[in-house]
Design a protein that fits this description.
Layout: H1 3-14, E1 30-41, E2 44-55, E3 59-63, H2 70-76, E4 84-90, E5 94-95, H3 99-107, E6 109-112, H4 124-129, H5 147-159, H6 175-188, E7 193-197, H7 205-222, E8 225-230, H8 233-239, E9 242-247, E10 250-255, H9 262-269, H10 281-286, E11 287-288, E12 299-300
Parallel strand pairs: 3-8, 3-9, 6-7, 7-8
Antiparallel strand pairs: 1-2, 1-4, 4-5, 9-10, 11-12
Length: 302
């Protein structure tokens, strides 16, 4: 596809109402049910038996410290752990123990990763096109995508504001732009569900806010269910419909964001009293560590 083709496609896209064919438009019934799902590696338990119901159209945030089990639980929703135990049931597909149901579920589930998982030497459009691979056989995927699929990929780039970067190499883009390419790739799948594993952890605060706001807006506009793992409590409270808090592989909090109080926060992050923090004396003199809820940035002492 040439720059001329991209320009013509951009005009066509912006002169039409872009509506993806999603079945679910608002929060509603149960979309996915996890029944006693667990993950262990030998004697090490990454996720204790967990039972959850995820609802259609809901923006759910998994919250907790590093190693709490957020990424493990997130990947269980897509049955990505070889050592996973328990049952995962998806509305309209049934038990994911069935290989065909699992294949269909993964095709309608977009993944967004912390490290983007893009191919740097390829263009933004080529990376986004990877989201259409699940709709074609291995042999067909060796050839250029049909015009309809290319249009979907261009629409996806337009949704994240990067249509003008369609023919730019991904390794020439900024971190925030690369993450938006990752979101566009997920959108190209025309998903019913998006799973985002620490999507803003590697971004600066301002860029993280913009990227998460973009993901939240698109999911709400298109009725896409989302499960997003985060470290940032303030972002979770601002964007989540539901917060699931984990600690040491167990779900210890599951409620609306406004009910996350100081006690729940302390339990999630096992906050250590200021007096017991192992900080060198000279560092304590230079920085005042604020452990209040929600966590504030440390301030430099005058």
């Amino acid at each position: 596809m040439s720059y001329h083709d991209i320009t013509i496609a951009a005009i066509q896209i912006r002169n039409q109402v872009i509506i993806f064919d999603y079945e679910f438009k608002s929060a509603g019934g149960v979309m996915i049910e996890l029944q006693n799902v667990s993950v262990s590696y030998g004697d090490a338990i990454a996720l204790y038996p967990t039972t959850l119901k995820l609802h259609q159209g809901q923006f759910t945030v998994l919250l907790g410290s590093s190693g709490a089990g957020k990424s493990t639980l997130l990947r269980c929703i897509n049955s990505m752990h070889a050592s996973q135990r328990g049952t995962t049931i998806v509305a309209g597909l049934g038990n994911l123990a069935n290989s065909r149901a699992l294949r269909m579920h993964r095709r309608q589930t977009g993944m967004v990763f912390q490290q983007h998982q893009l191919i740097g030497r390829l263009t933004a459009l080529q990376n986004v096109s990877m989201g259409r691979m699940g709709y074609h056989t291995a042999l067909r995927s060796l050839f250029p995508l049909p015009a309809k699929d290319q249009s979907i990929c261009l629409q996806s780039l337009d949704r994240v504001g990067l249509l003008h970067k369609a023919l730019s190499r991904v390794d020439a883009l900024s971190g925030g732009q690369q993450q938006r390419i990752g979101i566009a790739r997920a959108l190209a799948q025309q998903p019913k569900l998006v799973l985002a594993d620490e999507p803003v952890a590697s971004l600066d605060p301002a860029t993280a806010e913009r990227v998460l706001s973009l993901l939240h807006r698109i999911c709400k506009e298109d009725g896409i269910s989302a499960v997003v793992s985060l470290h940032q409590v303030d972002l979770a409270q601002r964007y989540a419909d539901r917060i699931i808090g984990l600690s040491h592989g167990r779900v210890i909090f599951d409620a609306a964001p406004q009910t996350l109080d100081q006690a729940s926060y302390d339990t999630l992050y096992e906050q250590v009293p200021r007096s017991s923090l192992s900080v060198p004396q000279d560092a304590r003199e230079e920085r005042l560590i604020d452990t209040s809820f929600p966590m504030q940035l440390a301030t430099v002492k005058d």
